[in-house]
Structures are given as structure tokens and as C-alpha cells.
Amino acid sequence: MPELPEVETTIRGLEPVLLGQRLASVDPRRPDLRRPIPADLRQRLTGATVTRLHRRAKYGLIDTSRGDTMIFHLGMSGRWRVDPEEIGTHDHLLIETGEGRRLALNDPRRFGSLDIVETEALAGFAPFVRLGPEPLGPEFTARHLAAALAGRAAPIKALLLDQRVVAGLGNIYVCEALHMAGIAPGTMGRRIGMVRLDRLARAIEAVLASAIEAGGSSLRDFARPDGELGYFSKQWRAYGREGEPCHCGTPIRRRTDGGRSTFYCPRCQR
DNA sequence: AGGTTGACCTGTACGC
DNA sequence: TGCGTACAGGTCAACC
């Protein structure tokens, strides 16, 4: 679930619960997820007030009045549960706010992460150092793609999954953007000219924007205690649609690249 | 250096 | 019902 639009929607859903609130308790339930959870995370957050929630790539950022930022990554299976009735085995971090709201970071596969860094030092946080531009920001253009893909022989699908090229795309939205742009996933990066790169950049922006909008339109569902988000209406044109007709009528195909499924239309995507 | 592969974890869906 | 297999939205280290 968690690619850029899902993290963005998560941040927007957490905002009404956390923004301006004092963190009455912050309780890691295990020492690590994908990597160790900083031992001082609890102490640095407890009693602090949340001043801002934002996002970089697929990372959620929670700033506090003490000059710290908690950084969470949802991995493959992470989500925040709001006011859960019970705490389960995969609730790895518990938070209670000054007004008694409770949050649980739930992540069965534990591919996610939790970190805390000084807000001023965010740019130096190791996973951020080499990230490419935000796809919905001003630096992301066809020109940027041209520079990033110059001389690259790897397939465009792999290049778009590389967070150094552009930050925040995952398997679903790469498939969707390539389908929308009419580019075959196996095309070598260096073989894509400016006209198609321009189409690709706009497709990426459009796919992400509409996914965020779809999430945002049902944000009130976020706070359901079961944690089900309910807004993943499957409006995908290619992803998960093997055998179903593309808008051109040709059945969508699925293949495996580097262990990941790729969905594409063999007629529309060249 | 760039490109590719496998490992990390658990849950779920499906075929027999 | 039970068992085995395939697969899942992400990174990152280790290899050619």
C-alpha cells in the first residue's frame, strides 16, 4: 500500500490527531523494525508537542517543539491505526496524546523503519542524501528525467523505481505511469527521447495527483479503529489487471522483472 | 560504475 | 480441514 500517495494520505490523516498535541506517551514495543529503533526515541518524544507533519519521498515526518523529527517508513505492510480498541502483536509503536487519542504503528512484515533526528539535520539523514526530486515538486521535469536517464541502459521500469531518479514511486504507480505514457516497461532509459520523457513526467504527476485526491476524498475514513483505510478504490488501468482488456481492447499482460510483477499493455506501450 | 539478484519478514489466497 | 506454494505496495547489501 504505501507509495507516495498513501504516505501523503497517511500524513493528512494523522494531522488532525497530532498537530499541536503534546505526546503524553511514546512507547516502542520492540527494539527494531527493518533496522534498530533509536534507543532514545521514547525519551526525546515524550512530553514534546507536535508542530508539523510532512512527507519526503515515502517517509512520513513528524516535527516537535524540541527540534526533533520522528521519521517513519511504512515498508510494504505498515499503517497507522487510530484509537485501536486492542493492541495486537504487530503494533510496534504506541502513542498517546495529551487529549487521550491513541495511535499504533502496525507493520506485520517489519520492512518499515522508525528514526529520530534533529529537524535541522534532516537533509543529512542518510536515506535522504541521495534521493531524487519530489515528483510533484518544481524540480521534477522532463529535463531532469533526461539528465537522470542519460546513458542508462537499465529498463525504464527499474529506473523509475530507483529513488535517486525520482523519489516516491513504487511498483503500482510506475506501472500506471508507464501505461498512461505509452512506454514499454523494458525500454532502455537512454532510448527515450524528450517528447516521450515529457509525456512520462506528466503521466507521473497525473497518476500521483489523482491517487492523492482519491485518498483525500475519503479522509474521514482514516480514523476507523480497525485501521482499514477504505480509500484504495482500484481505479488502476494496468496494475493488477492481467487478462482484463486495456482501454484499447488488448488484454493486459503480466510479467516478472527482478522478482516484481509488471503489468502492461503490449499494444499501447512501445 | 551500472545493472541485477536475493534477503529481510509475515500474512493471505489458492490448488490439491 | 490441512498442507504446500506463490505472491504482496520497499529497501539494501552483495554480486557480476
Architecture overview:
With about 270 residues, the chain is α+β, with helices and mostly antiparallel strands. It has 2 domains: about 5-130, Alpha-Beta Barrel (N-terminal domain of MutM-like DNA repair proteins); about 140-265, Helicase, Ruva Protein, domain 3. Helix content is about 25%, strand content about 20%. It contains 7 helices and 10 strands. The protein has helices at about 5-20, 40-45, 125-130, 140-150, 155-160, 170-180, 195-215, and strands spanning about 25-30, 50-55, 60-65, 70-75, 80, 90-95, 100-105, 115-120, 255, 260-265. The strands form 3 sheets. It has a 4-stranded antiparallel β-sheet with strand order 1-6-7-5. Strands 2-3-4-8 form a 4-stranded antiparallel β-sheet. Helix 1 runs parallel beside helix 7 (about 195-215), helix 4 (about 140-150) crosses helix 7 (about 195-215) and helix 6 (about 170-180) packs across helix 7 (about 195-215). The longest helix is centred in the C-terminal third of the chain and has 23 residues, at about 195-215. It is elongated. It binds a DNA duplex (16 and 16 nucleotides) through helix 6.
